[in-house]
Amino acid sequence: MRVLVPFAAEHPKTRLDDIFDPRERHAFARVMLRDVLRTLDEAGHSPEVLSTAPLDSRMPVTVDERPLSTAVNDALDPPMAVVMADLPLVTPEVVSELFSSAADVVLAPGRGGGTNAMVVRHPDFRVDYHGASYPDHREHARAIGASIETVDSHRLATDIDERADLVEVLIHGTGETRAWLDEARLELETTGGRVRVSREASEDG
Amino acid sequence: MRVLVPFAAEHPKTRLDDIFDPRERHAFARVMLRDVLRTLDEAGHSPEVLSTAPLDSRMPVTVDERPLSTAVNDALDPPMAVVMADLPLVTPEVVSELFSSAADVVLAPGRGGGTNAMVVRHPDFRVDYHGASYPDHREHARAIGASIETVDSHRLATDIDERADLVEVLIHGTGETRAWLDEARLELETTGGRVRVSREASEDG
């Protein structure tokens, strides 16, 4: 199935500014995108990037500067999937689970109420990523008479937006994103029973 | 299978002190425990509470004041499962998934590196909940030659410790815990694209 992967090419991952500088955030977003594209490809799907700016990629790239929901709705051509670019924990097995349901609308909620991945088979479905999009997408699917299924996956629910999310990559990640974090000298630290990410100073820093 | 449900009966859920007073945290912890026990029961298992203090419950209660890992290891009698008491999103379907694997050690990671649920069939396995217990439990299982399986579930990964976790209950919760939060006048609020929990003032407040 064709899979759209929306990507914010400019000023990505601003909520990671307490740990990465702008150049690092730029690189980190691209590393996560590559992991997601590779995983979709390995799972037998055809990922296409929907980027806000031109981008080098092995996969086809469409540039659309408009807001996320507008751009996705314009490109949406069911049956089609939409998978976010900041899901480095996703494995081919998890992708297969997402596609295994035959429901008209399959939703993978993100932590915090977002929609991290979806499969759309109903021609009238439209996305709206603003706010708590997962309950909104459910309600919309119900309103248009589409059958709905939800995928319960920690890997799919974990979009990487802020420092606490990096803990999940260090614990569960295996791909290029994990290697990039190791290279950036990030490590787990346990303080008062809670696990956080800390960053070692670089040798030449 | 017998399922241990450890419960911190005194001073529970201190990290929710920015939204609930001590009496509310006490009540909230018990509501979550009841949801977990009911769900385990509905899934056909036999939950037993391992509590730090005496407790009223429909299920058997053992009181053990010692630290969590010590008390659990002392009570552990494989085959047995250990499921945390603060997982109100868990459904009978998710519980069935946890028990569907025949591995010697089945682990359900919590967000932040903890171990929210496990099934132990290997006689030499011991728990250690301090710090990033999920990778530690994996390593220990490997060291004793136990086969390992991980359950990838957002519902099992979501233990309710702090304010941001309540968003998940308002979005995905269905049981008594969800009703309790509605009663406490908690609701979702979207600010700058991020979803948070806010609390309405009570009418008589």
Structure description:
The structure is a homodimer of 205-residue chains. Helix content of chain A is 35%, strand content 22%. Chain A is built from 7 helices and 9 strands; from the N terminus they run E-H-E-E-H-E-H-E-E-H-E-H-H-H-E-E. The first copy, chain A, has 205 residues and is of the alpha/beta class. In chain A, the strands form 2 sheets. The first copy, chain A, has a 7-stranded mixed β-sheet, sandwiched between helices. The first copy, chain A, has a two-stranded antiparallel ribbon with strand order 8-9. Chains A and B meet through helix 5 and helix 6 of A and helix 5 and helix 6 of B.
Give short descriptive properties of this protein:
alpha/beta; seven-stranded mixed sheet; two-stranded antiparallel sheet; 205 residues; 7 helices; homodimer
Task: State the helical fraction of chain A.
Answer: 25-40%
Strand order across the largest sheet of chain A: 3-2-1-4-6-5-7
**Average predicted local confidence, pLDDT of chain A:** 96
Q: What overall form of chain A do the CA principal axes indicate?
A: globular
- Share in β-strands of chain A: 15-25%
Order of helices and strands of chain A: EHEEHEHEEHEHHHEE
Would you spell out the secondary-structure blueprint of this structure?
Two copies of one chain form a homodimer.
Chain A: E1 2-7, H1 22-42, E2 46-51, E3 61-63, H2 68-75, E4 80-83, H3 92-100, E5 105-109, E6 115-120, H4 133-143, E7 148-150, H5 154-157, H6 163-172, H7 176-183, E8 186-191, E9 194-199
Parallel strand pairs in A: 1-2, 1-4, 2-3, 5-7
Antiparallel strand pairs in A: 4-6, 5-6, 8-9
